[in-house]
């Protein structure tokens, strides 16, 4: 023990010090109060022995001072003098002294006291340690209780809070310092009062068994669910409250999912069975089972599925399919079976089965059963419908193809009729018009006769124009009219047209202006013949419907008008039209120009309501007196042609003021050097080798004559036959090298003739070239099937016929060696007509001869040949053709005579 001895009497101090040391305690001595206080401050002494009789010191005060400064554990022992009063001892005890010794202190007594004090100190230390351990353990438990997220509190039997953890603070907002011992359960949880929860607490108090209840709170504005567990304790209750909001939500979500699934199961309209394996008993069915099978869900659960099958065989079949699917590890199995309802009714069902693995084994088999009775019936009905529809389609197709064939036949008949009619009408018209002209030259005709002959002539001409236009229109409508673009010189072409119209206008006493854009492209690519036809029609009309004033023909390059520098662009080199040109120099380029053609007159004009009508066939909206001169087809044809060329014909007109007809075309413009394949053709004048014999078979004499005229000059021997029968007889005798065979003939037609030729040994391998007015593909095929080698359509193109003859007869042609030179000597110039037109003399003579004979067909044929010689003849041919079609024989002769006059000059 560490002992401090406070004693001023040296003898007494020495004696006590000795005793203490003898008793093996550690001792420090002090002689007065100051020293004692100082020493006490520096170190801890288990025992302080203090003499109450210290001189100059109030020992009681010192005792008090020491007690106040020393720790609780120090024991203060006062030595009490025999002469000192007991009051003083009492004051010392009061001031903090723990024990006393009376003077004189003997060693034994001191030893007893020191032993007792040591024991007391030891006990005190143990107590202190136990207390500390308890405090620590309590702190640990508190920390533990605070660290758990669950609410935990304790109550005594009066419901006063005796323990309160952090989570309780969080839930109620009441701090531990305000709760423990100060608040009751009702203060912290006012909702308990009078509720089921209060009953639970009271139950626990009575029956001493744990109980729980659920309570909802609003935490941070959201509902929170707590599960309170109340346990009985020695002093009252221990209460745990667990936040089960998340569980609740999960539970809710799960319930919703389940409800959803259940609804889905029931709304699908299909019955669902789950069969637990390996027991093979149903452990779930949805409510649709009742609708489909008539069994309640309870009746199904725990049963085997075989009761739903029609018979055992059906069930075994299904079971076998299931086994196979499981073995093959299929995910899904779809089968169809006949099933049985509770009332015995059978129905067809589709069963879709899937397999559910549980713990690595087949846990459940889920089957969805769909009643497909209706579907089956519909499928059957559909199949019947489909079959009947297919039958109907077939019938309709047959009908349609019959109708199509009929239509095609009708259209062919129409074409043939038109072709025949035009031919048949032209021949008598030849005579009518020719004789009308000839008779008019008779002297001394009366006025009545002259007028009559004029009427015959103008009516005949009208009829002829009508025939030609109808033929053109029917071709356009049948889509058989094709454009043949070729290169020609645009300004020259326009000047020639203008030249011809100028004559007509001047004859009528009206002025004519031609305004050609000086920047027009020189060479363009277009169907010259058809463009001429359009322009002539518009210009003819303008002159025809204008009595005074003027007609203006304007041609503009639109791009130049709007943007000169970007006016022309390089055309697509893939342009199919450009392919007929073979560039012979690298600089050749095709550009495109936008050309506007405009014909303006100051004539009678057209009423606004009639503007649309004039483009319809046979529409003539002017007064009667003009109608006789036209057919009403010109504008309809012109509009079609402009459309085919990519433009649109428009009209602007005011009655009594005049009209403007205009259209725009995009014309490929040719730059650089091109050689036009067509113009390269050399003139064939004969062939090398032995003479060949050609049999021409045609019932129309003119046609035979045309071919004869064409082929005779080339050195062929010509034989003619007017029908198939004559052809066969002639061929056997004449043995021709080739037969040119018309297909439509009386007595024996071309098809039958060809067939028979192929059967007659003497002539069976003679080459046959069919020539037909039909443009139909089937006619061509039919003729080839009948035995013809080639098929050519009318109007016959000379080049094509010669090409065929060359192939069939293996001919080597002889060409005109110096055509330019020879032609130059024979050419007539006709500058007197207002334009540069030239014609070979020979052609001029032939034309005049045909004109004198009134043979329009031959004139037209010859003109076609002349046209093929080159572009320079086009205006002349157009003019002459117009006269020919109008059966204006005198005009033809006059025209040709003018050419003669020019030549002589
Ligand atoms: P037609 O042979 O009668 O001229 P078109 O088809 O060329 O037939 O013209 C149809 C009708 O349009 C004419 O009959 C006439 O009434 C009217 N028409 C055409 N061009 C003109 C014009 N320049 N001025 C007035 N009317 C015109």
Structure in words:
The protein is of the alpha/beta class and about 900 residues long. Helices cover about 50% and strands about 25% of the residues. It is built from 30 helices and 34 strands. Strands 17, 19, 20, 22, 23 and 24 form a six-stranded mixed beta sheet that branches. A five-stranded parallel beta sheet has the order 2-1-3-4-5, with helices on both faces. A five-stranded antiparallel beta sheet has the order 7-6-10-9-8, sandwiched between helices. Strand 29, helix 23 and strand 30 form a beta-alpha-beta unit. It is elongated. It starts with a strand and ends with a helix. The relative contact order is 0.04. The site of adenosine-5'-diphosphate has 22 residues, from helix 17 and helix 20.
List the helices and strands and how they pair.
Elements: E1 2-6, H1 10-22, E2 26-30, H2 33-42, E3 47-51, H3 59-69, E4 75-80, H4 86-95, E5 99-102, H5 107-147, E6 151-156, E7 161-164, H6 166-172, H7 176-179, H8 185-188, H9 196-207, E8 211-219, E9 222-232, E10 236-243, H10 245-267, E11 271-276, E12 281-285, H11 288-293, H12 297-300, H13 312-327, E13 332-340, E14 346-358, E15 361-371, H14 373-440, H15 447-477, E16 486-489, H16 490-508, E17 511-516, E18 523-526, H17 528-544, E19 550-557, H18 558-562, E20 569-570, E21 581-583, E22 589-601, H19 624-627, H20 634-644, E23 650-654, E24 658-671, E25 674-676, E26 684-687, E27 693-697, H21 701-711, E28 717-721, H22 724-734, E29 738-742, H23 750-757, E30 767-772, H24 777-786, E31 790-793, H25 798-809, E32 813-815, H26 819-826, E33 827-829, E34 838-840, H27 841-852, H28 856-869, H29 874-885, H30 889-904
Parallel strand pairs: 1-2, 1-3, 3-4, 4-5, 17-19, 27-28, 27-29, 29-30, 30-31
Antiparallel strand pairs: 6-7, 6-10, 8-9, 9-10, 11-12, 11-15, 13-14, 14-15, 16-18, 19-22, 20-22, 21-25, 22-24, 23-24, 26-32, 33-34
Adenosine-5'-diphosphate is lined by residues 537, 541-542, 545, 601, 603-606, 614, 619-622, 630-636, 659.
